[in-house]
Specification:
This protein is α/β, with parallel strands linked by helices and about 260 residues long. It contains eight helices and ten strands.
């Protein structure tokens, strides 16, 4: 069985962060390990408190996993502070393991989760990861990206890692779709699923990046991993358990559509 490591924050409601990552890893028949960066007190209605893990303990968690397991892929999620960003960079920079980085710093609602200096520091991880998975707000902050900004698209093509930008809502043939755009150097590939009008979308970004990591771990190419992960999230939203009183979690189950 392939092993995948998640370096991310904890979600006490179980819908996002480390909890979502581990459920996703298991859905794709991989074994999940974890290194926690922050603890949160939250539910589907929001976050009420957050406690940072000491950077040295974050590093020790990673090292203990790597020294005992043959890790086939790593997913990085919320790093929370400059100190944790620095220690994670130092820990991964010499690894020969595929790494998927979800640069969590702006929520789906557009709320900033990190200070500007820490956001800039996230870019220092790019040379050591295979792909980053920003949402539209994060892509705008990192690259001044929008679909019509040719200069930003040229800059993305020059990055030392691949990029997939998540969930641009587009309309075609009188239907709305969620579009993910994969930049592979100078090549661009788009992936579509029908837009589902729902409040059950908590943890979709975390689960998407961890699905990519799990699929890379079992031998899929980046493009194939993105395609499978996009369909996985669509099915996970479609089959959400509809629990909680706010933005509910998705269903972390792999259907036949994701085989």
């Amino acid at each position: 069985m392939k092993v995948v490591l998640s370096i991310a924050g904890s979600d006490s409601s179980g819908g996002a962060g480390i909890q979502a990552d581990l459920k996703t890893f298991e859905a794709f028949d991989t074994f999940g390990c974890s290194a926690l960066t922050v603890l949160t007190a939250q539910n589907t209605q929001g976050v009420t408190n957050i406690q940072e893990i000491s950077p040295s303990f974050v590093q020790e968690q990673i090292q203990r996993v790597l020294e005992d397991f043959e890790v086939s892929a790593i997913k990085i999620g919320m790093l929370f502070s400059n100190e944790i960003i620095d220690i994670v960079r130092e820990t991964i920079k010499d690894l020969d393991i595929p790494i998927v980085f979800d640069p969590v710093f702006i929520s789906k609602a557009g709320s900033k989760l990190l200070n500007d200096d820490a956001i800039e520091n996230l870019k220092t991880l790019f040379p050591y990861v295979n792909i980053i998975t920003p949402n539209l707000y994060e892509a705008k902050a990192l690259f001044n990206y929008d679909v019509l900004n040719e200069k930003a698209i040229e800059e993305i093509a020059k990055l030392p890692c691949r990029v997939v930008i998540k969930n641009d809502i587009v309309r075609k043939e009188n239907e709305e779709f969620s579009m993910d755009t994969f930049f592979d150097n100078n090549d661009k590939k788009v992936f579509y699923t029908k837009l589902i009008e729902t409040t059950n979308n908590h943890g979709t970004g975390c689960s998407f990046s961890s699905a990519i990591a799990a699929n890379i771990a079992v031998g899929k190419s980046l493009e194939e991993a993105i395609k499978v992960s996009k369909e996985f999230i669509y099915q996970a939203i479609l089959n959400a358990p509809n629990i909680g009183h706010g933005k509910g979690p998705i269903a972390h189950k792999k259907g036949k559509e994701c085989l």
